[in-house]
Amino acid sequence: MDLQNQDYKELITGIGDLLISGRQKAAQQVNTILVETYWTIGLYIVEYEQGGNEKSEYGSQLFERLSRDLTQAYGKGFSRSNLLYIRKFYITFQKRETVSHKLTWSHYFEILKADNELEISFYAKQAEKEKWSVRELKRQMKSMLFHRLALSTDKEGVLKLANKGHEVQQPEDLIKDPFVLEFLNIPEQHQYHENELEEKLINNLQHFLLELGKGFAFIARQYRISIGGKHFRLDLLFYHRILKCFVLIDLKRGEIDHNDVGQMNLYLNYFKKEEATEGDNEPVGILLGAYKDHILVEYATSSITNKILLAKYQLYLPDKTQLESALKKLLDV
Length: 333
Known about the structure:
Blueprint: H1 6-50, H2 53-58, H3 62-74, H4 80-92, H5 105-111, H6 117-130, H7 134-142, H8 145-150, H9 155-164, E1 179-180, H10 194-203, H11 205-212, E2 216-227, E3 230-240, E4 245-256, H12 258-275, E5 284-292, H13 294-301, E6 307-314, H14 320-332
Domain YhcG N-terminal: 17-148
Domain YhcG PDDEXK nuclease: 173-327
Protein name: DUF1016 family protein
């Protein structure tokens, strides 16, 4: 037999595709069963506690004894901390239909580490929407994504964020306050230049796209714009699949000023006339700087019809205490 002919190659490819698909379905089925099993174990524990047996017989030692006995009978997976998270899993998602089978137990284990129900609800919905790996989920939680998005809205917006996840429906939804770029590993006091920042963003494009959020497709860096014999360079060019528009990003090492706003307005006018095609919405410009003066921004953008968004970035993870305090004030109001 000629085992190098096209039919044989197609046979190998077909078997390979079938195996990959089968293994994925098997893994998904195992995950579904595991998540449902842990939910039910949580139910059993809570029902036992509510029956009064926990207080009358074992007191606070219930989980130590459960851990010891279950581990002895069934092996690993029943540490005291894991049992406490299983219990919390049921208490948090008491309606079985609110549990997503697209998330693994490892996802839920991380999500349940959040401090309040609003955060837990948000990360569960967002992890499913964005199809985050466990590693990506941990990074977003560590960077306080929920708080950063919440503080750019009002109390009603925070509740919507928790109930539905982050929905990009208008350009303003692209902004986080601030963008966190800790994955660039630039020391906070390091005197870097804008081209160094851009270079590191490109070298860490996957992480940057994760920080930007769902819908961004990278097109080019240092995109050349020629107007009236003069040449300009846009730092980063993206297309947003949900908003159906170009997104232009200019990086500023220091504070954003009115000249930066004027230049971005020029770029946006050019893209509207020269680059946009049928079906595209108007382009959006994002000026990403280390600082911004809110009063200057207000005056610089007040009469501009193009959509120019100004956002801050920081090179280190945010202070959890400060963000939690700010969010608490917003929710109290």
